[in-house]
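Could you join me in thinking about how sequence relates to backbone shape in a protein? To get us started, please write out a protein record for me. Would you write everything just below, so we can both look at the same thing?
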Amino acid sequence: MSPWSGEVVPALADAVADVLDVAFGRPEAPGVLPIVQAGDPVLRASAAPYTGQLGDELPRLLEAMRRTMRAAPGVGLAAPQVGIGLALAVCEDAGMPGDDRERTPLPYRVLVNPRYEAVAEDGTPGERVAFYEGCLSVDGWQAVVARPRQVRLTGQDETGAALDEVLTGWPARIVQHETDHLRGELYLDRAESRSLTSNANLARFWSASPDPAPAAAALGFTLP
């Protein structure tokens, strides 16, 4: 019995199946999908809640999204980034011990219909932290984004099981970024515009430390 409340939408499921057949049929990088870039309307539309529209194609799509994320490489990917306007995302990060961004490991996981809210340990809205952030759909660029350090994540996983947990640091930033995609938002909508830098210039000028304070002083933007 399906854990999802809705019906399979044959036209959508068939269209996704056709895309996946092509992707998995390639001898080079099988299952890796093209990543949609900024300017495509699918990235600016609110994704439809997932209610079972894809039927048996859901596991195959999620596997393709995982392969695409890893091949990029990235730490998260939302379905709109591969041209599919459904509220699905995958994320995974090996972490970076000792990193000032609290980049603790985030094991591979699937987010279905995710939502988040900022929380602190006492249950109130908590502090905001700012770091450089990039996006596979804004290839080659990064900018500083201030986000809640800690969030409560709710939604479902790929089996339909409920999610309700608190995430802190970089894992919290990842799920915020991917969930924003499902609302038709890009990280640039929240970024300090004067912080925008090419990846090459980030490596040249600002890679010594994750702390964006030197960039803020030199480029003329404020931090929380």
